[in-house]
Amino acid sequence: MSIIEQVKTLLGLSDDLQDNLLSVIQMLTESHFKAYSKQDDIPENLNYIIVEVMVKRFNRIGSEGMSSQTVEGLSMAFELDDFAEYDKVIHRQFASDFQAGFKAL
Known about the structure:
Elements: H1 3-11, H2 19-37, H3 47-59, E1 68-71, E2 74-77, H4 87-93, H5 95-99
Antiparallel strand pairs: 1-2
Helix pairs in contact: 1-3, 2-3
């Protein structure tokens, strides 16, 4: 199942009306992940991070830039760093790359 198909399943989308938007969200999320992790590629075993962050970003459309929002008594707080909760997993995956700059010559 593709990343977009997984996201659509989690969001309960059964049509193709949001596919262009989801493609843009995927491209931006993957680019952000690569910059965050300082990697050129995303290992397949970390695709779940892309899927989960895409769902968060989709659900935040219209609330970009806000740290919290209250509507009719329902309060929502947004993470400012989408990848912070995955930081330990990302560092563990790329441990040798993160430590490379600190090795003695």
